[in-house]
Design goal:
single chain; 453 residues; mainly alpha; 17 helices; globular
Length: 453
């Protein structure tokens, strides 16, 4: 499938991935919805922790992206032995990274939250963060294992594992938060327990059932510095991208605190949960592009690479426009799910406004995210990082400040600046990707066209 028609491959890979991401977003959304019942401070605390959590979970996704890219390229090149070894190197890297960063984050948590301006929400934030970051390995390993399944086109089991996590988290959240009376710490425990179950299921398939296309038995592990470097060439930029995106969230949170206090952070947190949920089709398409692009690049098939990139962008724009329109129409109804108690009822109107403005974010991002994922797929993680740096850390934050403070548009101006910066940065990334594909085509033709005597 992944070596054939790129349009069919993207569709078949993307649909299960969309379901997987829907489930992930649902359990993230469940945390916010149930925590919202504890009041604005508790919801704002989740907003302050989320960027840090995404950075560290991004380590797993980054290692997974590196493994996905390398495994897919080796499958495309027909090198089964190196594909196996790449998967095992990724798992080793996940273990090392998890141990190091768990220690660091637990030590530095308080000063980080103080620097972010958590203020009166810091107690809630610490109750939640010490638990989820204490079990960081669970989240990092889960990201790597899922990527290994995706790299060989096995989306079914990757989806099942994520479904286990999502369903259990949705069930456990209200029990731990309200029934057992753990409060915001209950949300953290529900998340950790749910993710652990997913890890157990995937580990059974890999080392118990042993029916993957890949063979990840320890006998196939042979440490190769070149393999580790190859994985890191995608892992480091991909992880830095998550850091950049999380840094943007911190910057935006700081701007919102200045503009309208911590309540504005609570509103932004709630609305961005909805935007993330609505972004699922784009993430699914992008993840499919990563695998298909990697296989095409490994097989030196420039036409498949070009088709995968352009097709995913067209589909992405169509889907985003439809979802964006629906979000604007139903913004008030959507906002109700975060304002169902007396402690959070006052947030409803502000959340509805935020959703209406930020729905444009969906239309601004397809061409940028598909270009970034294409670069990750071909092993050019640094290119993807540069696009994200330009789009998120520079353009989105700069325009958010200009529109929010220089132009005096306030909170709505900050939202609009994020959207506009995203579109401009994504356009630059799209043009760069088209140029790269053109150069790859020229190189492939010169290298693989037989020369006449």
């Amino acid at each position: 499938m992944i070596t054939g028609d790129p349009k069919k491959a993207i569709t078949k890979l993307a649909l299960p991935m969309m379901l997987s991401m829907l489930l992930i977003m649902m359990y993230n959304l469940a945390d916010s919805v149930w925590v919202a019942g504890l009041g604005a401070d508790a919801l704002a605390a989740i907003g302050f922790i989320t960027p840090l959590f995404m950075i560290l979970v991004g380590l797993g996704n980054g290692i997974g992206a590196g493994a996905n890219s390398l495994i897919a390229r080796n499958i495309g090149a027909g090198d089964f032995k190196q594909a196996n070894n790449a998967g095992l190197h990724a798992i080793l890297l996940a273990v090392v990274v998890s141990v190091v960063f768990t220690v660091l984050i637990e030590i530095l948590m308080v000063p980080i939250l103080q620097f972010m301006g958590a203020g009166s929400t810091i107690g809630y934030a610490l109750d939640y963060s010490y638990i989820v970051f204490g079990f960081l390995f669970v989240f990092v390993y889960s990201g790597v294992a899922s990527a290994i399944f995706r790299s060989e086109g096995d989306m079914k089991r990757a989806t099942i594992a994520i479904a286990v996590t999502a369903i259990m988290n949705i069930i456990l959240d209200p029990i731990f938060i309200y029934v057992l009376g753990f409060g915001i710490a209950g949300a953290a425990w529900a998340t950790v327990i749910s993710a652990s179950l997913s890890c157990i299921v995937m580990s059974y398939w890999i080392w118990g059932k042993k029916d993957l296309y890949l063979d990840l038995s320890l006998k196939n592990f042979k440490y190769q510095r070149s393999l580790m470097i190859d994985i890191l060439q995608v892992t480091v930029p991909s992880t830095l991208e998550n850091i950049v995106i999380s840094a943007l969230a911190m910057i935006v949170n700081s701007m919102l605190v200045i503009a309208d206090g911590t309540t504005a952070v609570a509103v932004y947190t709630a609305s961005m949960r909805i935007i993330q949920l609505a972004s699922i089709p784009l993430i699914g398409l992008g993840t499919a592009v990563l695998t298909v692009a990697g296989v095409a690049y490994g097989a030196h098939n420039h036409e498949n690479l070009k088709t995968a990139h352009s097709y995913s962008i067209k589909v992405g724009f169509i889907v985003s426009i439809i979802i964006g329109i629906l979000m604007v129409i139903f913004s008030k109804q959507i906002a109700v799910i975060f304002s169902y108690t007396a402690a959070s009822a006052s947030l409803s109107a502000e959340i509805a406004t935020a959703i209406s403005v930020l729905s444009l974010f969906l239309i601004a991002i397809p061409h940028g995210i598909m270009s970034s994922m294409m670069f990750q797929g071909v092993g050019k993680g640094t290119y993807s990082l540069i696009i994200t740096l330009l789009r998120s850390l520079i353009l989105e934050s700069v325009f958010a400040y200009l529109f929010g403070f220089t132009f005096g548009w306030g909170v709505e101006g900050i939202y609009a600046g994020v959207v506009f910066g995203c579109f401009v940065g994504g356009t630059v990334g799209y043009l760069w990707a088209k140029f790269f594909i053109k150069k790859f085509k020229q190189i492939s033709i010169r290298k693989y066209t037989p020369q006449k005597d």
